[in-house]
């Protein structure tokens, strides 16, 4: 039985397309609009308001809710949004 191994490294064409898409999003929505999982550095300093939940503040990636921006919280009924 033959096994097939796949490389996790994107091809050059795929990487170029990804870089172009990221550049387009950052031009349209500003630097810092995308975050990579596991990336610890912040592209820009964002003033935030703490949610009061350390776990949620960390999960949001900037330490709370960004000040001066619209934030929508949604989920199923009775899921604890309030």
Concise structural overview:
By secondary structure, this protein is mainly alpha-helical.
Write the element-wise H/E pattern from the N-terminal end onward.
HEHE
> Which residues sit in consecutive blocks of at least 5 with pLDDT less than 50?
none
Kindly report the average pLDDT value.
82
Report the strand count.
2
- Using the CA coordinates, give the radius of gyration: 18 Å
Strand order of the largest sheet: 1-2
Largest sheet: 2 strands, antiparallel
Strand content: under 5%
What overall geometry do the principal axes of the alpha carbons give?
extended
| Helix count, DSSP H or I runs of 4 or more residues | 2
Structural category: mainly alpha
How would you portray this structure in words?
The termini are far apart. The chain is built from 2 helices and 2 strands, in the order αβαβ. The model has no long low-confidence stretch (mean pLDDT 82). The chain has a two-stranded antiparallel ribbon with strand order 1-2.
What's the structural blueprint in terms of helices and strands?
Blueprint: H1 12-29, E1 48-49, H2 54-60, E2 65-66
Antiparallel strand pairs: 1-2
Please tag this protein with its features.
single chain, 82 residues, mainly alpha, two-stranded antiparallel sheet
